[in-house]
Amino acid sequence: xxxxxxxxxxxxxxxxxxxxxxxxxxxxxxxxxxxxxxxxxxxxxxxxxxxxxxxxxxxxxxxxxxxxxxxxxxxxxxxxxxxxxxxxxxxxxxxxxxxxxxxxxxxxxxxxxxxxxxxxxxxxxxxxxxxxxxx
Length: 135
Hints:
Blueprint: E1 3-7, H1 18-26, E2 28-36, E3 38-43, E4 46-50, E5 56-64, H2 68-77, E6 90-99, E7 104-112, H3 130-133
Antiparallel strand pairs: 1-5, 2-5, 2-6, 3-4, 6-7
Helix pairs in contact: 1-2
């Protein structure tokens, strides 16, 4: 069974940092998708995904091919690696993601864990393509 990673922030293909480049080099882009939740500007440099069911968050889906080392390194990048002190800002969780072809799959995603009470919510994106919206 394939393993997937859903990314919505600095790991997306529009970002040029070493971890985003490595993700693209060591996995297969499986398409655009979205998940239920909201994005908050948790830091001037990056957003955080909260699974509150209040909207739809777009992102990219990558198929991982036995990439335990890649995931461990991405965990460190996201501050939730085995050696990172708790409490972690993010945790990697399996979530439901809707692929642009309309299918649903489970994918790993980095979920923001700290309070967003004083963080601005990012605007919801424009309506999803019809193939995703018809799920």
